[in-house]
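**Backbone description:**
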Amino acid sequence: MLDVICKKEYFEWCDSGLVDLGRLDIKAAQDAWVLSCLASAKGLRIAEIGGGDSRVLAKLKANNECWNIDRLEGKHGGPARERIVMHQGVRYVDAYLGDFSPDLPANYFDVVFSISVIEHVPDERFQSFFRDMSRIMKANTKTYHAIDFYVGDEPRSEVDGKLDSLRVNSCGATGLIFDQAPAYPSPLTFNCSYVSNSDMAMALWNKMAPNLRAIRETCQAITLKAVWLKL
């Protein structure tokens, strides 16, 4: 699967109580999608990549073994160790996927997921990132990822190029395949049916990552949901 999160499913997650209605940004929809995929998770080994002060692991840790793979360096507006609450019941691993850290055991996890991480992985590191992720997953398990993109009325070559690179480099030699064929429109432009960030949220994001202000003035932040299967 590689497709856009739309309002119809977001509204259904709201009806089901999966959405934190106190959040005014797109993270509420991303969290709800992951939680909808893991609604029945119990007794599983779950790893989040780049989870920081993880909202999702906080909900899953009571019934599952949860790991957070994050160096907590505060890059790209992400959380730094000194500014987050370290959740009890969650194991933290100071590593990046793609480094093949010995602290991450092979063939161990039932579920691996990330929220707003893959868009920050450089294209040249895609294969090592996905090979390492495949390494730590059990066979016949799935991995779920919410990926942010800024899209506008006209195609953006950097968006479509990133998606092309993601499709090509995440599968095959990595041991992973998409669980369903990618279904996002190409070229990818904004559609009113897509879940997007509010303008107020983007104004706040300007304070965290001011280098993207010009893009936010003409584009909307949307999320693609991606699911791969380890063969």
The helical segments are 7-15, 27-37, 55-60, 126-136, 157-169, 199-208, 213-216.
